[in-house]
Design a protein that fits this description.
Low-confidence stretches: 94-104
Structural class: alpha+beta
Mean pLDDT: 80
Distance between the termini: 34 Å
Helix content: 40-55%
CATH architecture of the largest domain: Orthogonal Bundle
Number of domains: 2
Amino acid sequence: MTKLSDTQRVLLSHAAQRPDANVLPLPTSITAPQPALEKSIGALLSRGLIEKVVVSDVSRAWSQDGDQRYGLRICDAGLVAIGVATAPGAVDEVQAELPTAKKFSKVAAVLELLTRIEGATLNDLVVATGWLPPTTRAVLTGLRKKGYAIAKTKRDGITCYSISVLA
């Protein structure tokens, strides 16, 4: 299994969910300072998990050489590293299955459940992710640390979690 930092995992997951497989524009959840971001992207490039591609759109450009702009695109190895694919040609497969690509992000599934009007019970979250209850609670704590305001209420005597507002 490829060891990735949180920033690298977010960059790869974001690119895997895009129709063009581009890393840019960056997801709004990236809060790393520019030097740390450049280091993460450099590591992804050197490990062959993303590649430079010629782009025309300035918003998708990471670097420029004269009049030529270069963007960043996830490679098959990047998809394998985040568990989205297991075979060569995976970028094309993921692009063909984009409506279901978000299934691969368990945290996205948790966020989706938490944004429902009724919220989600711990059991709902465990069933959706396959995680054990302690792991699921740890993810909720992690989301709180990232700025999500997770409310805890009771529904029929069972604790229910929901995202009330984004802090």
